[in-house]
Amino acid sequence: MPDGETKEPQWGEGTEFRMVRRGRHKVVIFRGAPRLAFDLVDDPGEQHNLLGATGGLPAAVGDLLRWAGESIDFDQAEHERTVRDGSLRKQYAQATDDRSGNLFHMPNGTAVNADDTLYHPEIVATDGENLFGPDWRNQNPTR
């Protein structure tokens, strides 16, 4: 049974998910969002959630929902993540607001949000030393 998951709330609180697929059916359960189920043969673009459809669900979808729900404990995953990463924010704090942890360090010392477009980046900082401390050049010897 192919499956996938992310135990990190990458797209905001409650977006952790578990996905399972068997044959033509796929189910996705989230920590804080409605569940999804699709028939990949009749709906390969995953546009019609079977859980919102009228009529009965295929037995396979019910089985997948049960299995997905029993195979992950989102609260336990959050606890493990918090214990594992708890001190990292303090240890590697940056002098910017919390808009992105994905920064690209430009050769001139500026830092831009790497999730922005390349041609119109938002400059997050203009001085690497202010952002990352006095050793930032030693940590990035190619700059």
Give an overview of the whole structure:
- This protein has helices at residues 59-70, 74-85, 88-91, 128-132, 136-139, and strands at 3-6, 17-22, 25-30, 36-39, 103-105, 111-113, 123-125.
- The strands form 2 sheets. The protein has a 4-stranded antiparallel beta sheet with strand order 1-2-3-4, covered by helices on one side. Strands 5-6-7 form a 3-stranded antiparallel beta sheet.
- It is elongated and about 65 Å long.
- A hairpin with a 5-residue loop joins strand 3 (25-30) and strand 4.
- The chain contains 5 helices and 7 strands.
- It has 2 domains: 3-90, Arylsulfatase, C-terminal domain (2-Layer Sandwich); 103-139, no CATH class.
- It starts with a strand and ends with a helix.
- With 143 residues, the protein is an alpha+beta fold.
Could you give a quick summary of the protein structure above?
With 143 residues, the protein is α+β, with helices and mostly antiparallel strands. It has helices at 59-70, 74-85, 88-91, 128-132, 136-139, and strands at 3-6, 17-22, 25-30, 36-39, 103-105, 111-113, 123-125.
